[in-house]
Amino acid sequence: MISSLHSVRLNQDLCIGCTNCIKSCPTEAIRVRNKKANIIEGKCIDCGECIRKCPEHAKKSVTSSLLEIDKYKYKIALPAPSLYSQFGKNADIGKILMSLKNCGFDHVFEVSKAADIVSDFTRDYIETSEITPVISSSCPVVVRLIQIKFPNLIPNLLPFNPPVEVAAKAARNNAMRDHGLKAEDIGIFFISPCPAKVTTLKNPIGIEKSNIDGMISFTEIFPHIIKNMSEEKLPFYFSGKGIGWAKSGGETSSLRINDYICVDGIENVINILHDIEEERLSAIQFAELLSCKNGCVGGVLTIENPFIARSIIRQFTENYKDSEQSNSCGLMPEDTAFTKPIKKKCVNLFGKDIKVALEKMNEVKEIKKKLPSLDCGACGSPSCQVMAEDIVLGETTLNDCMVLFKEQFEKNDKE
Asked: With contact defined as beta carbons under 8 Å apart, do 57 and 75 qualify?
């Protein structure tokens, strides 16, 4: 059973054991046993691909309820820039923000402000970095993927917190200064398009404790914003570059550099990470890697079609492309930097005893030779290699291989 540290959860009552999820999981974190899926906690990166692929809606993302904001004396909403893309091509950002505030918040602090701050510091960091390419740390799925499958690339990660954490820190500091509030009186809620960002609340990356108190999904907040929509507007942070972070390529375009790549979609990201690991992209300065196709506008918790949403964000970036904004938050690079090292996440498949592990790995090789190498997933494991490992771990047997079962059945039938 997956723990409360993860956002992605499985409802076994709805699961029919169809194996769609195991084929889409980038870290092979799902198995189907006894006609039910199981998520291996240590391998899950909360990308939400299983949520997308499950025809029975047995996977979901656990997020905060809007009612939770009432626990705090002063409530601050942090809207992701991708939120602006969810209300059609004629959306008015000022109206969206006012409606969001009318949902019960005392203040709205736009994450796009922090995006510009991180862009400024990133540009300076890249100019002096001896490691190439520097890999963006804005997508928590990619960071966790690197921790599990590409630990050699951890030094390549940009050592800055993503804009949402920077925004939360600035928003809390401002509220304490301007209203004389105690830190614990302030509730900061990120309006999130993504399960992995929800996970960073309880399981943060690069810091001991998140600055965020809750994560409310687009799907949760959307009807409330629609209900409260009026002609009233809030002034908004009209930076095309900051808003552009919502779509793939937005972060890199804000850096004003030439030697970069931007890759979206988890499968494409994995291929690029292999290339970086094999030093094929050392001439590239920066790599913007995003788990979701089209970027955050394609997050699992969004409403709008991601291609339409991307087009809307593109229009906003065009409308405000000449709007230069300053770092009004007074933050320095050290205020945004990681304070805790990013470490490799070891999945010790066969334990820490090297001798025992080697023996079991040899067993895996022998069992793998007996399997058809079709990687069909019908056995409940994502590949024949993983099935061989699962057999050694005692989680399944050769009898669960449908191909071998069929061959044996046909052989017995002939006899």
From this structure: no
Give the domain 350-415 fold. Answer: 3-methyladenine DNA Glycosylase II; Chain A, domain 3 (1.10.15)
**CATH architecture observed for domain 1-60:** 2-Layer Sandwich (3.30)
Q: Where in the chain is the domain with CATH 1.10.15.40?
A: 350-415
DSSP single-letter state for residue 28: -
Compute the radius of gyration of the chain from its Cα atoms. 23
Distance from C-alpha of 293 to C-alpha of 275, rounded to nearest angstrom: 19
pTM of the model: 0.91
Query: pLDDT for 176-217, tens place per residue?
Result: 999 999 999 999 999 999 999 888 888 899 999 999 999 999
Banded model confidence at residue 415, pLDDT cuts 50, 70, 90? low
Residue 304 token pair: 């709008």
Report whether 61 contacts 217 (CB < 8 A).
Answer: yes
- CA 368 – CA 246 distance, rounded (Å): 43
Angstrom distance (rounded) from CA 390 to CA 218: 38
Pairwise CA distance, residues 50 & 61, whole Å = 10
